[in-house]
Amino acid sequence: MDWYAPPDWFIIAILLLFALLLILIVVWAIRRSHGNVRKMEIEVEKQKLDLLAKDLDTRAKEHPFTKLSTDQIQSIRTLEDENELIELNNYHKEKIVEARLRKLENLVREAKLERMILKLDLEEKKVK
Predict the structure, then answer these.
(1) Could you tell me how many helices (H) and strands (E) the chain has, helices first?
(2) Which residue range(s) make up the domain with 21?
(3) Do 40 and 94 share a domain, yes or no?
(4) What is the pLDDT of residues 37-53, one digit of tens each?
C-alpha cells in the first residue's frame, strides 16, 4: 500500500505559512505590551502633573510670588485697561484705513476702465 506523499514545495509552503504566523503573533504581542507600557507611562506623567499643580496652588496660597499693595494692583489693572482700549482703537483705525484704501483702489480702477472704454470708442470711430 503506497501512501500519497505531498510534494516538497507544498510542505515548504506550509512551513513558511506557519513561520509567518508565529512571527505575526510575536510582533502583535510585542506591540501590545509596548502599548500597555506607554499607557502606564502617560498615566504616571498625568499623576505627576496633577501633583505639581496641587503643589503650586498650595505654595501660591501660602507664599504669593509678588507682594503688591492693592494700590499697585489697581494701577496695573488701570494700565492694562488703557492698553486694551488703545489696541481696540488702533484696530478700528486700521480697518478704516484698509476699507478706504480698497475704495480708492476701486475708484482708480473704475476711472482707468472708463478711460480705456472711451479710447476704444474713439478708435472704433476712426476705423469706421
Answers:
(1) 2, 0
(2) 7-65
(3) no
(4) 788 888 999 999 988 88
